[in-house]
Specification:
This protein is mostly helical and about 70 residues long. The protein has a domain at about 25-65. Helices cover about 60% and strands about 5% of the residues. The chain is built from 2 helices and 2 strands. It has a two-stranded antiparallel sheet with strand order 1-2. Strand 1 (about 1-5) and strand 2 (about 10) form a beta hairpin.
Length: about 70
């Protein structure tokens, strides 16, 4: 038995979810790409800030404005 990573439906092992219809291999590929993109974005955002207190303050301001 497996749980669908998208909807959580518990079902016998298969290649796609019988409830929501996602194909597990494609879903995991998409999730991996999202994680890689998020890490790349985080790495890039770290490099645009200067070091020290000025960088910390700029990061804080940016994150506050993003919310």
């Amino acid at each position: 038995m497996i749980d669908c990573p998208k909807c959580g439906h518990n079902q016998p092992s298969s290649q796609e979810c019988v409830k929501c219809g996602i194909i597990f291999s494609k879903f995991s590929d998409v999730e991996e790409k999202k994680e890689k993109d998020a890490k790349a974005s985080e790495d890039m955002s770290e490099s645009i800030y200067p070091s020290g207190i000025k960088g910390v303050l700029l990061k804080f301001i940016d994150s506050s404005l993003a919310k």
